[in-house]
Amino acid sequence: MSLETARTEHLDIGDVRFAFRRLGATAGTPLLLLQHFTGTMDSWDPEVVNCIAESRPVIAFNNLGIGSSTGRTPDTVEQMAADARSFIQGLDLPTVDLLGFSLGSMLAQVLAAQHPDLIRKIIIAGAAPRGGEEHLVEVVGEAFAVAGPDVRLPLFFTPTEESQRAGRAFVARAMARKENRDPDGGDDISEPQAKAIIGWCASKEEDQATLRAIAQPALVVHGSDDTMFPSINAYNMFKAMRNAQLLLYPDAGHGALFQYPERFVTHCRTFLDE
Amino acid sequence: MSLETARTEHLDIGDVRFAFRRLGATAGTPLLLLQHFTGTMDSWDPEVVNCIAESRPVIAFNNLGIGSSTGRTPDTVEQMAADARSFIQGLDLPTVDLLGFSLGSMLAQVLAAQHPDLIRKIIIAGAAPRGGEEHLVEVVGEAFAVAGPDVRLPLFFTPTEESQRAGRAFVARAMARKENRDPDGGDDISEPQAKAIIGWCASKEEDQATLRAIAQPALVVHGSDDTMFPSINAYNMFKAMRNAQLLLYPDAGHGALFQYPERFVTHCRTFLDE
Questions:
Q1: Residue of chain A with shortest Cα separation from B233
Q2: A28: left (phi over 0), alpha (psi -120 to 50) or beta
Q3: What SS3 state is found at B156?
Q4: Do residue B248 and residue A246 have CB atoms under 8 angstroms apart?
Q5: Residue B163: is its pLDDT beyond 90?
Q6: Structural domain includes residue A120
Q7: Do B241 and A248 make contact, defined as CB atoms within 8 angstroms?
Q8: What is the pLDDT of residue B24?
């Protein structure tokens, strides 16, 4: 079973139907994947996800309104986190670990701070804290203004030859699933999600209360040259959390975790197994 | 063969007799250990050194004037680095990796920048760059002013119960060698070494030229609460080197690498094996 071949399952909660895929080991704390701006289950890197799933259960899902899930995408991180919590509890999972990338990292922070018993450990990549520095609109606008084979090449990778080569390999891996792929979204997803991210970063918080409330072990992974969420965010998050490790990768942009899949998987395993 | 039991060997270069100990695998690039302020071969953590030596050759040595080596301790990082280079070349080693801790990290930076063919990879822990922020005299002075079982407990570990417990375990491990221990040094070592460290941090450099000259892969490991060399040094070094990874550990002081020996060894292996 792999991310590319896992069957899409469904969970009904109220009038919402969540789409999700499970893979990996059956025993152990499951790792729940929280996806980036406009991303679906099929936007994850199969190499990263399949390798992590060798030693633990992994669950990818689409939050409300995304891909093959129904419902309406909310425009706040807090509501998205509440929806993710409904999904976790709907699956009857007593405890989960979280891997949150970009927008997903914001949900992971809220969930970890609010639910110390439900969330065991968090890995946050390409993250920004409440009140953090973001350049979403400018950078995304510039990336879409340039014609190219995939907007993730300028958005997730640096301009160097090595990083772009790694980016093309990532994009090819992420296209591996042919059957039952999640549909891409439109403005009904990107608009509320952009509002949520911008609102999160605009909301200054007294003494970084959310991060200070996170007592669980946290692994913060970031690229040296993330243009949307600069790496100083990651350093500041590390300093504010009481039990965080910081990992910064060289010549890497927002998609640092997909640029060095083997390295990232090893670091995740070391962290989750401790 | 372990750090506690390895035979002390000697290498004569000119009128200097270097003391060193070799352990671990015979094949592979050797990892040379570069020690901290006033430290000898016996100041290393046997758990860290022995675990790293399971998969590669490891060499500990005393630089000029330290412990069981002869000669006079110089008062500049540059001369200490030149002496270390003589030692490496005296052993006929074509290439080495370096693990430099604190003062040793400064030697590692100079060696990596000056000798791209001799130095393959560097791991620098508790490091400061040229022109970096240091609080050596105040912090060491305060630590010696408080009576305690070992000055490394306040200097290398944070005041939390967990960190101090890890500190006591480290000190106990570092005392394991009973026979043929290196003698502790006096002012003839601490004075020139302090001058070297303070001079290194006081010497501002145009555009961080030393760090920018380091093209080799570098792993920067630092504690969240290093009182002598604040963690922002590590972040700034990461940003200035072109191929560095940064790893910051929580609730950890200058001795972060000895507080989490298993984690540090795993991270070193991942880095050195890549």
A1: A235
A2: left
A3: helix
A4: yes
A5: yes
A6: yes
A7: no
A8: 96
Tokens at residue A64, please? Answer: 């409300």
Length of chain B counted residue by residue: 274
Please tell me which of the candidates B224, B245, B270 has its beta carbon nearest to residue A250. B245
- A235 with B235: Cβ contact below 8 A: yes
Fill in the amino acid letter for A29: T
Whether residue A123 is contained in a domain is answered as yes
Does residue A266 carry a pLDDT above 90?
A: yes
Share of chain A above pLDDT 70, in %: 100
Nearest to A31 by CA among A10, A59, A62, A1: A59
B238 interaction partners in chain A (CB closer than 8 Å): 224, 248, 250
d(CA B16, CA B80): 13
* CB-facing half-sphere around the CA of B127: CA atoms within 13 A: 29
Q: What domain range includes position B177? A: 9-273
Q: What is the pLDDT of residues A159-169, one digit of tens each?
A: 999 999 999 99
Substitution target from B245, B260, B267 for chain A, most A beta carbons within 10 A = B245
For residue B138, the SS3 value is helix
Alpha-carbon torsion, ordered B256, B257, B262, B263, to 10 deg? 70
Phi, psi of A241, rounded to the nearest 5 degrees: -85, 150
Amino acid at A3: L
Q: Which residues of A touch B224 (CB under 8 A)?
A: 238-239
For tokens 């289950």, the residue is A41
- Tell me, what amino acid is at B123? I
Q: Is B4 within a domain?
A: no
For residues B238 and A222, give the distance between their C-alpha atoms in angstroms, rounded to a whole number: 12
Is the CB of B248 less than 8 angstroms away from the CB of A249?
no
DSSP secondary structure code for residue B76 in this structure: S
* Contact predicate A201/A133, CB 8 Å: yes
Partner-chain residue, chosen from A244, A248, A270, that has the shortest CB–CB distance to B266:
A270
Q: What is the pLDDT of residues B114-162, one digit of tens each?
A: 999 999 999 999 999 999 999 999 999 999 998 899 999 999 999 999 9
Domain membership of residue B3 (yes or no) is: no
In chain A, count H helices and then E strands. 11, 8
The number of distinct structural domains making up chain A is: 1
Helix, strand or coil, per DSSP, at residue A147: coil
CATH number for position A248: 3.40.50.1820
Q: Name the residue among B113, B114, B123 with its Cα closest to residue B32.
A: B123
Closest C-alpha to A24, from A16, A33, A37, A15: A33
> Distance (Å) from the C-alpha of residue A267 to the closest C-alpha of chain B?
8
Interface mutation vs chain B, best among A224, A232, A247, most B CBs within 10 Å: A224
CA distances from B236 to A22, A159, A240, B77, B220 (A): 40, 22, 18, 20, 10
Q: How many CA atoms lie within 13 A of A178 on its CB side?
A: 0
User: Alpha helix (H) ranges present in chain A?
Assistant: 46-52, 77-90, 103-114, 136-145, 152-156, 161-174, 187-202, 209-212, 231-240, 256-259, 261-273
